[in-house]
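Handout, section B. The chain below has 250 residues.
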Amino acid sequence: MENKLEKIGGVDQFFANEMSAKDFSFDEKVASVFDDMVSRSVPMYGETMSAALDLASNFVESGSNIYDIGTATGTLLIEFDKILGKTDVNLIGIDNSEAMVKQAQDKIDQKELNNNIELIVGDMEESLGLNNASVVFMNYTLQFIRPLHRESVIRQIYESLNDNGCLILVEKVLGNDSLFNRLYIDLYYKYKHQVGYSDKEIKQKREALENVLIPYRIDENLELLKRCGFSSSDIFFKWYNFAGFIAVKN
């Protein structure tokens, strides 16, 4: 995956205007600028997704399903299709936002793919219906699932994986130490200024996400993976308060 990802939709100015206080949601307005939003809001997004795909390539099993939970506009599966070439695996994207799935379908329809990509609108806090999986991606998605449901979701993923299958999990995280946590947040806001977001945009997005995006500490994520059955897990990416995990079902 190239560091500068292909984008569809417009430039992210979603929080540029004065907004009434409300929780963030992946509605039509967000979906229309999502590619720009995620590429600018998430540090090293392209590099992290590239690393995720490189790792996942080592676990793909012939005849299996590959899932992207929280697929958004489908970029990850489209890029993985390029890497895989023509094969007999099934690529399946799941998202709970109809607007996001529509954007993903529009993007997929414009591509000449090696494999079919199936898109599903599904409630990620309920039964996901996963089975025969060799790879499951869950990037910047678990953080939006209410903590009460996270163990159930990860356990479903574990149970759906074939032996030696892997979960790639990328999340915003909290620092274990409050001093470093504050420093990481300050550096993240500095980064957002550098990519063109204003103080107003940063403030309004922070307030909108406050009750919606609930990050765990790194050790909490690792313990969750272990509790759900993953005996092998590691951190493959870390940038201040962002981290990538890989977990394998042995």
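Note. The first helix runs from residue 28 to 41. Compare this with the example in section A.
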